[in-house]
Specification:
Layout lengths: L21 E5 L5 E10 L4 E8 L1 E4 H12 L18 E4 L5 H22 L9 E5 L8 H9 L6 E6 L4 H10 L13 H4 L5 E7 L1 H5 L5 H6 L3 E7 L6 E9 L7 E3 L16 E6 L3 E6 L11 E3 L2 H30 L5 E6 L4 H13 L19 H10 L8 E8 L3 E8 L1
Parallel strand pairs: 6-7, 6-8, 7-13, 15-16
Antiparallel strand pairs: 1-2, 2-3, 3-9, 4-5, 8-9, 10-17, 11-14, 12-13, 16-17
Helix pairs in contact: 2-3, 8-9
Amino acid sequence: MNIKSKNSQNIAAPFFEQPQVETDVIPVREGVPFGIKRVFHPEIGIGGAYGAWGKSYDNEALIPLLEDHLGKPLLKEERMNLAPLGFVHRHHGPVLSDDEQLELEVEVGARFLREAAKANGWKPEEVEGVLIGMTGPVSDDYTEKIAKKAGIPDSAIKISVHKACDSSMGALHLLLNPDLAVHQQTKRNVAKELFGKKVLVGGIEGLSRVVMKSRDISALQLFGNGAGVIGVIPGQTMKFLVGKPHEVYDEKGVLTVAMSYPHSRQTKVDQSMIEFSQSGDNHLRFAGLMHEPEDRISSVAMASPMGMVKLFVRTGVQVVFDVYEKYQALMDEMGIAKKITVGIVHHANLKINSLKAKQLKDIGIQIPMPWILSEFGNVSAASNMIAFLRQLPLIKPGDHILFDGFGAGTYYDTFAVAF
């Protein structure tokens, strides 16, 4: 299984300096750098936009920023060797007031929605659904705010999904799979309701804001800002084949994340950890329970990278195996000789993906899973969407691909789709 970085772009270069990236400065405080790239595949009819905001820091420049934040020098043993983990750059914004941060992230989100619609040849007023995954929303009504600012009608369904790094895959799975048990929590099946309609789905992660509320040395070095939004017409441009959601509570708190969104914080025996809530007729929220940091102040606290490997690999391999078996059975039933051409995997760190690839190969599953986000850092729910948009030009009509999301909590959404 191929997990090496393969991309026609020079991925070692900062994102803002890469070809076809449009840059701007968002006028908040002294100005916040912003970069975005649109992608469209005319043969399969899918496009979108991805990018980042804030200053780009390479692995060396990151250290003084973090030392200033922590108010002390980083010890040699605290400095992570980030390049072997797959990360060369990441983006961080300036320290802002709460009002300024809200202004910035609403403007950022609206731009990604507008540009994703534009990439697909849609006008904002034609969009009938917006599903956004995010770890730590800057406001409870963030999806509503950015949709409104982007010019998307009030009648469009807005859905916020909070399952940490799995959030955007949880959102896309929710949109495509009408048989998910989570639909039973609502009085409407959004997969059926939005079938055949123009929908924007993505992950928008202002993780600079989130991690700068932490003093966790690993989290501060790994995470950064990023976003990716795609436009799909379920059942037409993207067709669901098979899939599986999975959740298991992180009892030991290997990766703890503060919940900055509504949730009862109660565990229920033999019931999903995902709670559904609704604000008005058209804003739905699917929020996952997290093991939160013990101090109740920090935004995130995590084990070492190898701790993350142990947390996600074993279960992640099993979920992929289960979905792959379902896929093979479906192909046999349909009498079709097809294979999954590529896996779009969450870029948590390269060691996780490499070990996962090795263990899948050991049980006979070989799916290319390219590592193509080196200049973003871990951008949580945005990573699968950015990876998909970067892989999009190589996808052919009729291809089957595997989306593989996973995140703190812990949550997994793995599913196969056809174009």
